[in-house]
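Format notes (please read before filing issues)

Several people have asked whether sequences and structure tokens are stored in separate files. They are not. Every record keeps both together, in the order shown below: the sequence lines, then the token lines. Line labels are part of the format and must not be stripped during preprocessing.
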Amino acid sequence: MDFCGWSWEENKLFEMALAVIDEDNPDRWKEIISVIGGKRSEEEVKKHYEALLRDLNIIESGMFDQEFGEAQDCTQDITLTGDEQKLLTELSIENCLRRQLLH
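Then the structure lines:
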């Protein structure tokens, strides 16, 4: 599965990183790049983020065309592997420690 050149795994890690790496972190994009495997440029990551924001705005505005799926089930359970859960926990702890050091 391909999301504009991004693998499903990259997207999943990207979204996890966005959730735990603070927006005010001056190294946010570098850390996100590291989390997703280090193969993307800062420009690519920022463009992907902007596309995600556009998609969210379209969905939240109600402009999303419901004809695509009629009665779509928009819920999906996501099961994280042990490694993904460990990464998410490490990112959360690292982010909390960074915030404590800054305050």
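For reference, the curators noted about this record: Residues 82-102 form the longest helix (21 residues). The longest strand covers residues 2-3.
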